[in-house]
Specification:
740 residues, Glycosyltransferase, Rossmann fold, six-stranded parallel β-sheet, 47% helix, 28 helices, globular, alpha/beta
Length: 740
């Protein structure tokens, strides 16, 4: 167990042992290590049933003990005490997995171990007898933090067990991060086309109440003859040990008795996470008829809702916590087939309502994805122990969603969740942004796929470039461009083609075509009236001049930078160091343009004003713990209240790029620290505490609202995230960071 890096020991069951706690622990440990290893790494002390059971554990297991051997617990605690790398112990608790009465063999371990201890109660039982109450009270006495997964469990621990409120913390059950999709594709993959699919998954036992669901089916089959109920999962190992397959055999006989052989299928195996997700995606309604009203946690309900599936469930304590009746599912009576049948008919008869429930199920569980749950655990760990976490870790670059949004004409503006939505067409703004990001990625990896989309984007910009050098912005689904003539659109397009015209690593044809569009537009730069358009064009000129160092380029940069300085002089005061009388979108691009002007001309006045303006903006948007961009729902007018909500990925990305460019041209390390803090906005350091970047799709959610985020992953937000992430690939910056 003794290694150099800091570690946390999880005491729990662990795969390949077939157990819900084992799966939970594996998923949490994997998510935590992905975010925080090597600064802090989770290791596993695994619980075996006894000395005769042995599992082929992975290398993450540093120790295993027999749950029925009291001495093993004390020995493990003493080993942990001697290991100075271990900073904390986290126990995953379920009464049945520890030895002794009510699992009280755990108590000598807690009494012996000298490290801080957190414990997660996966079951919380109300109205305990004296022995159970004493056991839980002793566990609480020897732990610094007690984690539960619903509010009722917190209340029970306070009222029935008299545990101090200060030790109790609510962290939701984790779920895999998946795309929201219709069931069509998964049904095709599983050979379930044209079926209405109901499902239940998990290890099978009598408490699942599966016969109640089966007995509800005859009434459903009459109206929906294509109904199919999938019972997915192996029989629980404890059930097998005591009763064999008697319960499963009973269920099979019920299916035959009711004439449901063509409507019920059993999958008797311990299924992988990938299989679970595929079956859930193929599901139209997930059904849970658990008979224990005191069930305080359910991974199966969590996963079903997390995959965006409406749920019909009995009202266990956890179901009442997670199901908003009528919004993401329906609650039915215990042991009541007619109640289950009525709920299923209600949903199956109203496709619009069912689809709305799917979407609500997905939206209501976004705070439960494993990266956010791992972050929540990390925050708690820091409260009770000296747990270091890396501050220089970046996600791997993933371009899946960029490719998904791009067709043969351009990048599509909008998406429904992660599915491109062509109805609103394309925008020049998005294609210009995408061209830069794709070019930056091509420099690192010159793949044919990247060259294909780069060619698509430059072709789009050629298409919207008019003879007079201006640009159309919106092109509808019928490929008809609008007649707009927007300064900011002009600026972004010029910035993009200026960048790619000078990118010597791109094929010469791309550079030549970019240069032609750039030179056609340059005759319009004296007409620019917008500070943002000035900023975009200055950046385009800066890049263009690196390959085409003509005096005219520097002359243009000076001319535009002086205009930007005039905006600043006209609008700034001692308490408002800014270019305009309000802060809106892409704010940091304005001072950034003066850093670019300084880099091109070496005029220190440009840099001085850039520093003043950026310091002013930073004082408003950087809080102690996080970056908070100006909200789109009201912006921030001078002498008014700033808006905090509807924060946009574009603003966070702009700040990242501005701060890193400022660092390169001032050497001030605070700029680099701020850039990383701004980037963390994408990874959960925002007022919601949730990740805006979706590591599964490679997309980025469209905005952070007051209580939730916009779950659509459109072009602007996805490109914004990629722009920010690619900024850290600059060799002058990259050496300070590493990828996950």
């Amino acid at each position: 167990m003794n290694q150099r890096h800091n570690s946390i020991v999880y005491l729990s069951t662990y795969p390949p042992r077939e157990c819900g706690i084992a799966t939970f622990t594996h998923d949490l440990a994997t998510a935590f290590n992905k975010l925080y290893n090597p600064a802090t790494k989770v290791k596993i002390a695994a619980l075996d049933e006894n000395h005769t059971t042995h599992y082929n554990y992975p290398s993450t297991i540093v120790s295993s003990i027999a749950a029925d051997d009291l001495g093993n617990y004390v020995t493990l605690a003493e080993r942990i005490n001697k290991d100075h790398t271990v900073k904390l112990v986290h126990v995953q608790h379920e009464f049945g997995i520890f030895g002794g009465d009510w699992g009280n063999y755990l108590i000598p371990f807690l009494q012996t171990v000298k490290k801080p201890v957190a414990i997660t109660f996966h079951s919380v039982l109300p109205h305990p007898d004296d022995h159970l109450k004493k056991t839980v009270e002793l566990i609480g006495k020897h732990t610094r933090a007690i984690i539960v997964m619903n509010n009722l469990s917190k209340t029970i621990l306070e009222t029935d067990y008299a545990l101090p409120k200060s030790k109790l913390f609510l962290i939701p059950h984790g779920i895999p991060q998946v795309m929201f999709e219709s069931s069509r594709e998964a049904k095709t993959a599983l050979g379930l086309n044209h079926k209405l699919v109901l499902s239940t998954f998990g290890m099978i036992s009598k408490d699942k109440g599966i016969e109640d669901i089966i007995q509800a089916l005859p009434a459903i089959v009459k109206e929906y003859p294509n109904i199919l109920y999938l019972v997915i999962g192996a029989t629980h190992p404890h059930v097998l040990n005591y009763d064999g397959e008697s319960y499963r055999n009973f269920l099979g006989k019920e299916v035959e008795r009711l004439g449901l052989n063509n409507h019920v299928q059993f999958y008797n195996k311990y299924i992988s996470l990938e299989e679970i997700i595929q079956y859930l995606k193929a599901t139209d309604i997930y059904v849970s008829a658990v008979r224990n009203p005191r069930q305080s946690v359910s991974g199966t309900l969590s996963y079903a809702l997390g995959c965006g599936r409406a749920v019909v469930s009995t009202p266990t304590e956890y179901a009442k916590h997670i199901i908003k009746n009528g919004e993401n599912g329906l609650l039915v009576r215990f042991r009541d087939s007619s109640s289950i049948a009525a709920a299923l008919k209600e949903l199956l008869s109203d496709e619009k309502k069912l689809m709305a429930m799917h979407q609500n199920a997905f939206a209501s569980t976004r705070h439960m994805v494993w990266p956010d749950v791992a972050n929540a655990h990390a925050k708690l760990y820091k409260k009770i122990a000296a747990i270091p976490t890396t501050e220089k870790k970046l996600p791997e670059i993933k371009l899946d969603h960029l490719f998904r949004l791009t067709d043969s004409f351009g990048i599509i503006q909008h998406a429904r969740h992660a599915t491109p939505h062509i109805r609103w067409g394309y925008s020049a703004n998005d294609n210009a942004r995408a061209l830069i990001v794709a070019a930056q990625c091509f420099e690192k990896n010159s793949s044919p796929e990247l060259l294909r989309i780069i060619t698509t984007y430059i072709s789009f910009l050629e298409y919207v470039s008019r003879e007079n050098g201006t640009f159309a912005n919106i092109v509808n689904a019928a490929k008809k461009p609008d007649t707009s003539n927007d300064d900011d659109v002009f600026g972004r397009c010029m910035m993009a083609v200026g960048y790619t015209a000078a990118a010597s690593y791109l094929p010469e044809d791309i550079c030549r075509r970019s240069q032609a569009v750039f030179l056609k537009g340059i005759k319009n730069i004296d007409r620019i009236r917008s500070p943002r358009s000035l900023a975009f064009v200055i950046e385009g000129l800066y890049h263009y001049a690196k390959k085409h160092p003509r005096p005219l380029c520097i002359k243009y940069i000076k001319r535009l930078a002086d205009k930007q300085m005039q905006f600043f002089s006209r609008n700034s005061s001692d308490d408002w160091q800014w270019f305009e009388n309000e802060l809106t979108y892409s704010n940091s691009r304005l001072p950034e343009s003066l850093y670019y002007a300084y880099a091109a001309t070496k005029n220190p006045t440009y840099r001085a004003v850039a520093e003043r303006a950026l310091a002013f903006l930073s004082s408003i948007t950087f809080e102690k713990q996080r970056y908070a961009p100006i909200g789109e729902s009201g912006w921030y007018a001078r002498d008014k209240e700033r808006a905090y909500f509807d924060q946009q990925p574009e603003d966070a990305a702009a700040m990242v790029e501005t701060k890193l460019f400022a660092y390169k041209h001032t050497g001030r390390k605070q700029h680099m620290k701020d850039a990383f803090k701004a980037f963390q906005w994408f990874l959960g350091k925002n007022h919601l505490g949730l990740r805006v970047y979706n590591e599964t799709t490679g997309g980025c959610y469209d905005g952070v609202c007051k209580h939730s985020f916009n779950l659509n992953q459109g072009a602007e937000s996805t490109i914004a995230y990629l722009s920010a992430r690619m900024a850290f690939e600059d060799p002058a910056i990259k050496k300070y960071f590493h990828s996950t």
